[in-house]
């Protein structure tokens, strides 16, 4: 199959692959149309996870489960770069959950869950559940009044889970109060949650590897959504892969470059945000300070339990209906999401991947997205206050309205599938003349773009060099005061974003 001319790095990889099979038999090449950010959202998730693992391992060096709050304060106030690492770790976890939601939403819209990718979708849903569990466990570990109050409230609510799940949760979270080595006044469950935090992280690694192996098994990216029925795999479009420039398979260096670019972009963005908006940390002239109060039962009794943003939509149900019903709604929600590929195939009987050909699926999905947003905002604005049945009634109205509106609109958008039929020779002649004019215009535009690209590339390299010098200088001040660590983080985050931009030009020449 014809490909773009190979670079020296490609030839090195080919040489290695012939001898050790480093990637040639597992990693599929991506077509040109796939080099857009929406096709690489999974790489954003992976980058966030890697950053969270690295910073989490460093934070754990100073974390003491038997005295969690004091060790958190010590890390932030006394350890060089400790406050920055704590903030980066938290924002990286938030970024991972956010990118998982965006990734799943995008794949749902384009139908990337359809046959033969049903299992890959299910593994992705399990990954999402594990990520939420990991975030729940991590949220509790600082042992401040907000986090531990929300954690224990969540445990109490989950004790209403049906089908024996409540007994399983109780078994895993019951710890003897006289366990040796536990500081006075510290819930011994913290130590168990710390261990679970690492176990769940390991499970996430396993499922990510499984998810990626299935992804490569099916040839990598999905073809663009189509109104025609059929298996949605690249191997069934051999003619386009051979003849259409937009479908031509690209060298491995371009795929690796895209992965590295997304990693640098995520690392830089998260570090920059964590530096500009330190998580629960105040920066004063005298140093940095953890702003949250330690947990104690008396203060917790006066504190409305507010879970972190990714659990607000679940908390909403418990504020609307009795806990047993809320738990059932939550489990049904999970089950529908997990089995949605089969619901789409056997209940809705959609035959093609294009969104307009899946009106029932899109109607249900949009209803889920809207209720997720509405429920989260509603729960956040009413801390400690019961919402009542009106909450689930509003959800029901949203689902019905979304379904009806989307179904009607998408059915009307289902135009003829073979609009290219009936093309005359006159139209072909006109199209040829038009194409000549378009090609000349594109050549002129390409020259202008090439010159502009060179200027931008040189500017980015210059900025990167200057910023690297500033980072080196900032390191000298960190040793003098912990206040400067966030200035260092800001420079580092900006530098990584600039490097990501430079990599874009190096690998892609400023073109898609």
TrEMBL record:
GO terms for molecular function: electron transfer activity; metal ion binding; oxidoreductase activity. InterPro entries: Cyt_b/b6_C, Cyt_b/b6_C_sf, Cyt_b/b6_N, Cytb/b6-like_sf, Di-haem_cyt_TM. Residues 12-224 form the Cytochrome b/b6 N-terminal region profile domain. One of its GO terms (biological process) is respiratory electron transport chain. It is found in: Membrane. Keywords: Electron transport, Heme, Iron, Membrane, Metal-binding, Transmembrane, Transmembrane helix, Transport. Residues 307-421 form the Cytochrome b/b6 C-terminal region profile domain. The chain crosses the membrane at residues 39-63, 83-103, 119-139, 193-215, 256-277, 324-348, 360-378, 390-410, 455-480, 486-508. It is a multi-pass membrane protein. GO terms for cellular component: membrane. It holds the Pfam family Cytochrom_B_N_2. This is Cytochrome b6.
